[in-house]
Amino acid sequence: MDFTKPTIEYAQLWPMLVVFGVACVGVLVEGFVPRERRYVTQAGLAVAGLVVALAGSIYVGMDLSKLKSGGDVVARGKIAVEGTLAVDGPSIFVWSLVLVFAIAGVLLFAERRLEAGVSAFAGQAAALPGTEAERDASTRGLDHTEVYPLLMFAVGGMMLFPTANDLLTMFVALEVLSLPLYLLCGLARRRRLLSQEAALKYFLLGAFSSAFFLYGVALTYGFAGSMEFTDINEAVHNDTSNHVLLLIGMGMLAVGLLFKVGAVPFHAWTPDVYQGAPTAVTAFMAACTKIAAFGAMLRLFYVAFGADRWDWQPMLWIIAIITMLVGSILAVVQTDMKRMLAYSSVAHTGFLLTGLLGVQAASALGPDEITSLQAVLFYLATYGPAVVATFAIVTLVRDAGGEATAFSKWAGIGRRSPWVAGAFGFLLLSMAGIPLTGGFVGKWAVFEVAFAAGAWPVVVVAIIASVISVFFYVRVIRLMFFAELTAESAAVTRPSLLTSVTIAVCVLLTLLLGVVPGPVLDLAGNAGSFIR
Amino acid sequence: MDSFPWLTVLWAVPLAGALVTTFAPKGLLAKQVALVASLLTLAVGVVLATQFDKDGSGFQLEETHTWIKAFGVHYALGLDGLGLLLVLLTVVLVPIVLLAGWNDSPLDECKPWFAWALALEALSLAVFVATDVFLFYVVFEATLIPAYFLIGGFGRSRRGAAALKFLMFQLGGGLVLLGSVIGLYVVSAQQGSPSYLFGDVQDLDISTNAGRWLFAGFFIAFAVKAPLFPLHTWLADTTEQATPPTSVLLVCVLDKIGTFGMLRFCLGLFPEASDWATPVVVVLALISIVYGAFLAIAQDDILRLIGLTSLSHFGFITLGIFVFTTEGANGSILYMVNHGIATAALFLIAGFLIKRRGTTLMSQMGGLEKVQPVIAGLFLVAALATAGLPGLSQFVSEILVLISAFDYRWYVGAIAVTAIVLAAIYMLWAYQKMFTGPNPDSLQVEVEAGGDGVADLGRREIGVLVPLMLALVLFGFYPGPLLDVSNPFSEELLQHTGVNDDGPQVPAEASSEGGQ
Asked: How far apart are alpha carbons A503 and A388 in whole angstroms?
């Protein structure tokens, strides 16, 4: 039997390989660099790697080959590595978003001023909470610098995930991005039991959902006889037998992906994990996982199952509706900032799904109408900075016990620190979808595509959910600005430049995306559709 | 388009003023900066009035630039008669309100109020001159943020809850409107290049059914804003808790956006649907008129009372809009201006009085006429204007609306006209409870002791009220200039709606009737 060497398109894939490479170097650094120099080396290496990868993504993105139909560019990109990867406009867009917010994540990870000279991660994760070993690690000022290579591996997985063009690669990517996250969640320096509980919950439920995904892969393979999306699409077009196999397979795949984005009824992990994980990890995870997972979901449903959308659209209608309602209603009754933000992120998943299910045949679109892909990508671009910056601000509000996330401790902080509270309020307004913020334009876009695709009941529910969500966001603003300062009120700690720059840039991005959304919208539009 | 962008300047000046105020040092300087900014805005408004050709048709002083290409959104501004009157009302009221609220809060805490007030002015002005539906929506919603902080940050003890209620109602309405705005894009995109420009949207071929749904979204949002029964419940709570100058901004400027929107968008974009909805809207307007008046009669809190009189008056304005006659539209437009002036005067005088007496309850006042004759006199004038006394400005607009209401259906007019009697009851009764009657002994003691509680109006306060009083009398006898500006707009609008305008009377005649 002949063995032909697979061709690997390094010219298109190198940004991703840089990220994986830096992650591996990071592991070596742990082994060979003295402890006191690891922090600077690791953080510097991670930022450098991500910046190079980001620049590379932009470079690759500008150079993608164009696929034309009737004179118009409909898609750009290339199928790579023997059909297992698709480097096209949307995946480059998702890459760039993931990398931008990963850089923000590294900056938040590297913050050491808030904890008086150490990072927010456990001194020694292996030491049991409350033991002599833990106290010893803490007095010696130990730091887990492994978090940077872990983050890099997760970012690599997040880049692979939306690029995967067959089911097996997608599964591998899913695991590569998830495993480091499980670990990161359990590494909090304070409230370690809560953090470890969160990590275990996330791991168990995540493993469970991965099993669903894998079973879905098997069934879909049984139906289509191939793992590749193009072949599955072909099979959906031509094969009328075994439809049940397809439906079950599709449902199982959806379970795995909907778990990752935190859609109801697979959202149960979200509040616990968001609350228990170190807040910097929550910020990174909330933004980047969602972006990557939606990238993958878009490709799976649009490319592999695009021809069968009459079957999956009703399912997503229901999921989107209950996700928005459950997320926003449960957020109303929360009394902890991180849990409230977690439920609000569930609601945002619902809004994103509203955009996802707004797909229509190209012929049904008006000549200049925005596409559902464009809308979802833009929504992700607006959601990322808002969520990163809100969690970053949560790390600043502290009392003697570390971060103060209970609502009662936020009372009146706007009177003492109007700028930080003002920024937080602005970000909440963006999440609520108030005009002149990025969140509004994003909401408009996803509602529009769903409306145009005839999913008006979903849009009606989305509007109701938006009203509910305004309530809990504005309540926080009221708490910060109009409540009296109490003895319990936490103080806003002054962070180092790393966190302040992250917050400032993200707030600025949120404002810019609200006032001049044109360039990013056009970028999302120019990404074209997925290549097949 | 190469002419000077006056309309951009119009909203940019107060916005810049708000920013400068924010960064100015605490204390007197911040307030002075704010006042200067509002006076500059007034000057820009006057320039606009001189540039405006009142016989011209359509939008004037237009500026159009592409804003978000993918959504077909333009940064497009333009001014018509309706817009001009509301712009002038706003730019005149804001300096008055700033001066009236000059000493409302301590010197080192007052800065945010002035900054937010200017921000509210900037966004409201942008609403009145926006000629792109999306741009309109953006600024329409954005006005709520300064309003929220004005209510929640300053006022009485339960203001936080009142501000939240206000915002929930307004944003709820706003999100319903968002549904319709998106719907417009869908229709527009199906018919070629999507565009939100007012003219382009007007030319769309919207099916009857779609038009009615879209109309409903617009109307509900405006009915919350205006407010109309049954979406009015935020109104009294808000005016009760906010400071009186804030209430002036809310009721006299912000709420006008509701009725402004009905004229501009409901009638302008969906004439067929507006005609279809008329019976329901007229019923709601009538309920608002009568029910609002009864509610007002039942109040003991003067700030709630004034808030609820507005419910009744917004009922009148809506009625005038939806009877589809030129006089009706003219009457409504005039009503918006006159109501703004009269209600502003009422709120401010009541505010001055409350500050002195330390209570908002009318039952705890009484006999103040002899102690504070100037307050009593001015309040009486404003109250009579609100009650529609001939010779004062509100009468003219009320009579125009009533004539058209009788013209539409006699019983509609008959029901609406009862409000004149009811208005006399709630206003005169309020006057009676506050100012007449025997002096309680405690008051007598206070007078002998002297002090702020029994002092009459100071120079600043009188200065604030003088322009409003002059306007009340002037427009009562000579509403001609207002009608001249509003009439071309109304005629064009009614022509566009194509609904039968029976009994065409030249409104200039109506105006001279009002003047005699």
From this structure: 8
Measure the CA–CA gap between B308 and B321, rounded to whole angstroms. Answer: 20
Q: What is the ipTM of this complex?
A: 0.90
A204's tokens: 């168990």
Instruction: Tell me the C-alpha distance between A138 and A128, whole Å.
Output: 12
Cβ separation A474–B168 shorter than 8 A: yes
Task: Report residue A292's pLDDT band, with 50, 70 and 90 as the boundaries.
Answer: very high
The predicted structure's pLDDT at residue B499: 57
**Residues B237-257 as b or e (16 or more Cβ within 10 Å = b):** bbbbbbbbbbbbbbbbbbbbb
How many Cβ atoms sit within 10 Å of the Cβ of residue A353? 27
B176 interaction partners in chain A (CB closer than 8 Å): 463
What count of Cα atoms within 13 Å lies in the side-chain half-sphere of residue A381?
A: 31
Nearest to B171 among A452, A470, A482 (CB): A470
- What's the gap between Cα A276 and its chain centre? 17
8 A C-beta contact, residue A291 and residue A94? yes
What integer pLDDT is reported at residue B154 of this predicted model? 86
φ, ψ dihedrals at A252, nearest 5°: -65, -40
Q: Which residues contact A86 (CB under 8 A, 6 or more apart)?
A: A77, A78, A79, A80, A163, A164, A165, A229, A299, A303, A530, A531
Q: Do B171 and A467 touch (CB under 8 A)?
A: yes
Does position A129 have pLDDT exceeding 90, yes or no? no
Contact across the interface for A482 and B152, Cβ inside 8 Å: yes
> Which of A:117-156 have CB within 8 Å of B?
none
Q: What is the pLDDT of residues B50-77, one digit of tens each?
A: 888 877 777 888 888 888 888 889 999 9
User: How far apart (Å, rounded) are the C-alpha atoms in residues A236 and A305?
Assistant: 7
* pLDDT, tens digit (0-9, with 9 covering 90-100), for B398-448: 888 999 998 888 898 899 889 889 998 999 988 988 888 777 777 777 777
- In the predicted model, what is the mean pLDDT of chain B? 86
Q: What pLDDT is stored for residue B510 in this prediction?
A: 46
Residue A365 near chain B (CB below 8 Å): yes
Across-strand partners of A75? A67, A529
Instruction: From chain A, pick out residues whose CB is under 8 angstroms from the CB of B72.
Output: 368
pLDDT over 90 at B199, yes or no? no
| pLDDT tens-place string over residues A342-354 | 999 999 999 999 9
Q: Across the interface, which of B137, B141, B183 has its CB nearest the CB of A451?
A: B183
Q: Single out the residue of A495, A523, A511 nearest to residue A420, CA to CA.
A: A495
Contacts of B142 in chain A (CB under 8 A): 434-436
CB of A202 closer than 8 Å to CB of A190: no
Between the alpha carbon of residue B225 and those of residues A120, A307, B171, B420, the distances in Å are 47, 45, 10, 24
- The four Cα atoms A166, A171, A174, A175 give a dihedral, to 10 degrees, of -150
pLDDT exceeds cutoff 60 at A497: yes
Which stretches of A187-308 are DSSP H helices? 192-224, 229-238, 243-261, 269-276, 279-299
A:370-399 residues touching chain B, CB 8 A cutoff: 370, 374
CB neighbour list of residue A521: distance below 8 Å, 6 or more residues apart:
A370, A374, A378, A441, A445, B68, B69, B70, B71
Q: Min CA distance, B152 vs chain A (Å)?
A: 7
The pLDDT of residue A193 is above 80: yes
CB B130 within 8 A of CB B136: yes
Is pLDDT at B3 greater than 80 in this prediction? Answer: no
Q: Residue A483 is encoded by which pair of tokens?
A: 């409540």
Q: Are B303 and B238 in contact (CB under 8 A)?
A: no
Please tell me the distance from the alpha carbon of residue B112 to that of residue A467, in angstroms, as a whole number.
27
